Structure prediction request, 678 residues.
Amino acid sequence: MKVHEYQAKQLFKAFNVPVPEGRMAESAEEAFQIAEELGYPCVIKAQVHAGGRGKAGGVKLAKNSDEAKEYANAIVGMKLVSPQTGPEGKRVRRVLVEQGLSIAKELYLAIIVDREKEMPVIMASSEGGVEIEEVAARTPELIHKVHIHPISGLSGYHIRQLTFKLNLNKTQSKHFTSMLQNLYRLFEAKDASLVEINPLIITDTDDVIALDGKINFDDNGLFRHPDVGEMRDIHEEEPREVEASKYDLNYIKLDGNIGCMVNGAGLAMATMDIIKYYGGEPANFLDVGGGTSEERVKEAFKILLGDPNTQGVFVNIFGGIVRTDLVAKGIVNAVKGMELKVPIVIRLVGTNEEEGRRIIEESRMNVIAETSLPDAAQKVVELCNH
Amino acid sequence: MAILVNKDSRIVVQGFTGREGTFHATQMIEYGTPVKAGVTPGKGGIRHLDRPVFNSVEEAVKNEGVNVSVIFVPQAFAADAVMEAADAGIQVIVCITEGIPTLDMVKAKNFIKTTSSRLIGPNCPGVITPGEAKVGIMPARIHQKGHIGIVSRSGTLTYEAVNQITQLGMGQSTAVGIGGDPIIGSNFIDILRLFNEDPETEAVVLIGEIGGTMEEDAARYIKKNLDKPVVSFISGQTAPPGRRMGHAGAIISGGKGTAVEKMKALRENGIHVVETPSEIGSTVKKVLEKQI
Prediction:
């Protein structure tokens, strides 16, 4: 789960990780008020779940009231387009207004779980304020990594390794140390999957401050952090994906025209792959998981058919313990209630599959039953490519 | 022979009396799996599904000599259940649970490394040695005793491969679901090593997906160490970057972990990689026939 910069900074503040003075605003007027309160220079930053905001004109330094008013009006409500948002861009509904700070140095700092080493890793670099992928590509030796074993936890020597490699002076190191101890505590306490500060600045008074802040949370940990769950901004998510999550359906929108409904994530990905293999374009990833009840099948269909790009639906269910005749019944009943304008190809394998297929054939709806996966995939691609 | 579980295993079910535990243990028992006991803290002393229930894994080990555990405990408590089993000396721990927080698994995995236990999963369908022991939630009916070892990150996609193999008259020595999470107990190499040493296994099917570098590591291991042919399918060629595709571990991060990269690494190391999941069975057959 992603959160906005202002929310990440709220958490930083709660854990004593220094951030600039600032507040979130939801209108240009509010943003201007905050700017006036903070004084100048101040920064107005678009709040969207995407990077590249600066280059897209979503981050502006205001040196006086006129500029603050101008930038607030320009940024609140703008359509921000960056490589990360895609061409459709994102509408900016909130901004963060912060005091401007004197920057002596810009560093990079991140904490992530290293799945290969199976423990968290802290990454720091003197090359802050730029795309870290570029630093990794051009000068990887400037990215320093320390792995934190669960038994040692974050220990003094880990932090010293970083402060020496970053060439921090004594005061800067002291501030960096307490900041990192607090940041690591936040990472563990809130089940984060990524904490990234780029840039982490050193001011001309040797203070260490998070000028930007990004936190991604482990979805598997949300059940024990209701406060984090409340930070979810559904406006930053694809509406159909939000709808799907209400019914515990794992749905990801793609660009194609063949809607997919599958049980099991691996099989769902493989189904998208096989559609592409036969020349079609999947419209989505959808894993209905273990509980293929009539209710969930109905909701899944509603979501798939709600995508205006859908010209056909491919259902691929490999029923293990789930009875495929019940799945067939669920599908038929779900479809009965709707005005079906597109063909559906269903491939059902599993317990009582003959019964399942019979139920589909007898429904006499525009639903075609197949057993062979390649045949079913080819059929649906044919029907949608006419 | 087979690997990990067989008719001589003594199995305990953690989360025995819960809904999931009861449902799946019933199916396991129906299959003839040697389930000897269950654990549900607080229900020690009763009998369930005609087996004794204990308050702890330690008691189950002491009283029934169990050496394999299958875990049907909810996400909030599953990592704890894994560590309890390892601490009690269980040799093979199969954790079915999906949704365990990653930081819990960091702890559990690093703890297990200090014991002699082997963890399979979490977020996996389990392990089955057809005809002997079903330790998990896979549909028994599609399996058949044979000589093909299966190791997979997926659930239903594994069943797809198993079904093809059975339909073509071949069978499985053991099918292992290693799970879809980013941190798991056993990776491909761990299981391949076992298949390599298993006289019953003649060929291996490896089913991977986007995310991480397990398949690439396995490819190099196979080239260097495996005497048996491997057929592989990698799902997620069409997955967009940066999105978690169902499985917590199925995510292309910073350009790394794509299906295309994995397929390339596998092919470069002599593995037969198929383009679609429906070719797995037929390719295994062709590969084996050439051997003869």
In short: Residues 222 and 228 of chain A are 7 Å apart (CA to CA).
